[in-house]
């Protein structure tokens, strides 16, 4: 009678011996994913160190096997979350920012609801109910939760823990109707006046404002750049001498946990790398900034702290909010300048031009999220209808 084989992903007895050089070799037989048993060994300065290194190597080897997870349908959902996070790190396909965002959304939005259930108990009905309840609070939260829940359960299907992904059959989330908020001309006058008054106020102690906040607002409005993209503009990205002055948007500012704020050498998407012509008011703001700048290297940032380090996007948002509250102007955000510029370009030059300015890969994104629709129908329709149906005089 054939002796039963050890399960895939398991190892036998660890044997350790001392070499002539005084080091220790720990060795065992390991049954690999293809069913073959192989010798695996490591060396260490001491016997315990060699054995620890061997066990660590075997654990890492397990993680690379496509079907081995040590879990079943009766495992808890938090166990799947830990396995999913490890799998993302092994694949290393996501940017660090996206990886942190996925983990945050999983831990704050999804895990509290599913923490006490097993994978077998997560069906279509439970997922559907969860998303609908979350959508009552916030459509965006429900959308973000749907993404990470689908990814985690998809991993369970690929690694043969679950037979199917229940997220494939949940009902679609319905985006609530929303009109993009843009600034009116009167809003912009109030914003400019409020920033000017704040920058020119008398200062009894401490450094005086250097004008950067007002200049940032003008360049945001004149380029429709995201706040992170704008703060990542370097002196070498400026081309102000030609008949049509322009700047190149080719990076963004990122601030991650346990990392210094720094310039990332690419923006949100490949399409977001673009060269933008500068209107007069944005050009004048940049020229004013250049007259005061201390650092002149091409890689120096156009907008930076007094010691040349990058501004964080949150600090600029907070400063803008505080200044506007003092001026009595509400709901002023960097992204609203972006929508305002896009709406103006759409009304004058059309949707495709607005999409190019924003750096979008699909004009439908521009139309849905950035453009305030003009409610006024072309008045020529009245003349046409009069010609068709009007009574003779």
Explain this structure to me?
A hairpin with a 5-residue loop joins strand 1 and strand 2. The termini are far apart. The protein folds into 3 domains: 15-63; 77-169, Orthogonal Bundle (DNA polymerase, domain 1); 185-201 and 208-369, hpI Integrase, Chain A (Orthogonal Bundle). Helix 2 packs antiparallel against helix 3 and helix 4 (124-137) packs antiparallel against helix 5 (139-158). With 393 residues, it is mainly alpha-helical. It is built from 14 helices and 8 strands. Helices cover 47% and strands 9% of the residues. The strands form 3 sheets. It has a 3-stranded antiparallel beta sheet with strand order 1-2-3, covered by helices on one side. The mean pLDDT is 85. The longest helix has 20 residues, at 139-158.
Q: CATH superfamily assignment of the largest domain? A: Intergrase catalytic core
For this structure, the CATH topology of the largest domain is hpI Integrase, Chain A
**Strand sequence of the main sheet, in spatial order?**
1-2-3
**Percent of residues in β-strands:** 5-15%
Oligomer: single chain
Which segments are poorly predicted (pLDDT under 50) over 5 or more consecutive residues?
none
What is the helix content? Answer: 40-55%
Task: Provide the structure class.
Answer: mainly alpha
Shape: extended
Radius of gyration: 30 Å
The N- to C-terminal Cα distance equals 109 Å
CATH architecture of the largest domain: Orthogonal Bundle
Sheet with the most strands, sense and barrel status: 3 strands, antiparallel
The overall number of domains is: 3
Count of DSSP strands: 8
> What is the average of the pLDDT values?
85
Order of helices and strands: EEEHHHHHHHHEEEEEHHHHHH
Identify the CATH class of the largest domain. Mainly Alpha
């Amino acid at each position: 009678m054939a002796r039963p084989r050890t399960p895939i992903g398991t190892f036998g007895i660890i044997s350790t011996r001392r070499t002539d050089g005084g080091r220790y070799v720990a060795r065992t037989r390991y049954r690999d994913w293809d069913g073959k048993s192989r010798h695996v060994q490591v060396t260490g300065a001491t016997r315990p160190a060699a054995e620890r290194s061997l066990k660590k190597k075997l654990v890492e080897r397990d993680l690379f096997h496509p079907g081995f997870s040590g879990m079943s349908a009766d495992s808890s959902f938090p166990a799947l979350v830990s396995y999913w996070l490890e799998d993302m790190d092994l694949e290393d396909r996501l940017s660090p920012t996206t990886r942190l965002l996925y983990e945050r959304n999983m831990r704050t939005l999804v895990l509290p609801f599913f923490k006490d259930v097993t994978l077998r108990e997560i069906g279509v009905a439970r997922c559907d109910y969860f998303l609908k309840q979350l959508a009552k609070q916030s459509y965006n939260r429900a959308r973000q939760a749907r993404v990470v829940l689908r990814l985690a359960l998809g991993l369970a299907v690929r690694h043969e823990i679950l037979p199917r992904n229940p997220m494939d059959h949940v009902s679609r989330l319905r985006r609530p109707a929303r009109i993009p908020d843009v600034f009116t001309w009167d809003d912009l006058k109030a914003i400019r006046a409020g920033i000017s008054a704040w920058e020119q106020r008398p200062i009894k102690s401490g450094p005086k404002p250097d004008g950067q906040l007002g200049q940032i607002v003008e360049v945001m409005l004149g380029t429709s750049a995201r706040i992170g993209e704008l703060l990542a503009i370097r002196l070498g990205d400026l081309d102000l001498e030609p008949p049509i002055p322009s700047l190149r948007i080719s990076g963004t500012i990122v601030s991650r946990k346990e990392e210094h704020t720094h310039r990332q050498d690419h923006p949100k998407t490949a399409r977001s790398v673009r060269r933008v012509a500068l209107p007069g008011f944005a050009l004048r703001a940049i020229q004013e900034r250049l007259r005061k700048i201390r650092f002149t290297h091409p890689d120096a940032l156009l907008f930076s702290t007094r010691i040349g380090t990058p501004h964080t996007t949150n600090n600029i948002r907070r400063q803008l909010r505080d200044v506007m509250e003092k001026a009595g102007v509400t709901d002023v955000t960097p992204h609203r300048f972006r929508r305002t510029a896009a709406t103006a370009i759409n009304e004058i030059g059309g949707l495709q031009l607005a999409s190019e300015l924003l750096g979008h890969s699909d004009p439908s994104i521009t139309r849905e999220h950035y453009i305030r629709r003009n409610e006024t129908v072309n008045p020529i329709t009245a003349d046409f209808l009069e010609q068709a149906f009007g009574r003779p005089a």
